[in-house]
Design a protein that fits this description.
The protein has about 325 residues and is mostly helical. The chain is built from 17 helices and 4 strands. The strands form 2 sheets. It has a two-stranded antiparallel ribbon. It has a two-stranded antiparallel ribbon with strand order 3-4. Strand 1 and strand 2 form a beta hairpin. Helix 5 packs antiparallel against helix 9. The longest helix has 28 residues. The chain is globular and about 60 Å long.
Length: about 325
Amino acid sequence: MTVVGTFGLSVRDQALEADVQVGLAAVEEGLLEATKSEVPFITEAAQHLVRAGGKRFRPLLAMLAAQFGDPYAPGVVPAAVVVELTHLATLYHDDVMDEADVRRGVDSANTRWGNSVAVLTGDFLFSRASHMLADLGPEAVRIQAEAFERLVTGQILETAGPRDGRDPVDHYLDVLGGKTGSLIAVAVRFGAMMAGADERIVDVLAQYGERLGVAFQLADDVLDIASDSHESGKTPGTDLREGIPTLPVLRLRERAEQLGLPEDRALCELLDSDLTDDARHAEALERLRVHPSLEQARRDTVRYAEEARATLAPLPECDAKASLLELCDAVVHRAG
């Protein structure tokens, strides 16, 4: 048994391990090539987060999905690069919106070069992804366009908040389906599609990716509260400081409304205060870390991971399927 990637994914089949490792290495080369520019400063800014590393979760999923067809098909690696470039571009934009200081253990682009450069660098990555996508055919362009629309819609809905009468938790889970689930679904869809897998298998994998993507983001929500910057690679409580309600906070507010406990209401009042103050921010993090709402968010993460696992039932038994199942466990493990 050997381990692939930062998720600790164990691969029992040597041939599968070799395919995945070769594929991920090719994706890494493709990312560096795609982020080169004739302007050295653009290259530096565009490669800033590429060289910082990252989990490469989406390319890993694409490589595993490709095992259900021909993993050596010429479109598999470029498709994985396209998805990762798109993801990287959203990180540049997210850090501007969140005013984040750290990303993947290094200064965020907006901290290093300012908001304008960070936004424009994200745009540059989108353009490079689109250029590569055009070579993959009109169906790939359509799939990516639909996913990108969902991604942006999810971001807008998060910013706008739930409409009157809408349950905030349900609204948030819909937001995550767009913001995170849509692109992860594309990663597995592209991997299988470019490998020539049967259409039914492609559809199953896309459903798996959507649910796993939501579980992945919920795990990040838990990490944002529970971890330190060394573990997560970014500043803890960033969303908290910016007043962005992630699932642990939404579960807290839900509990406060349902039970009316004084300690829950007091914590809600603290979260509604000015958390740009370091002392208040630190107190809010400390109190949330021991609050039952964090454990509820962990249970929600497990539920989505189990739904992702269940979607894989129709797939033929093979080492790639076993690895996809194990990724469900790995996502849950991240959430503690």
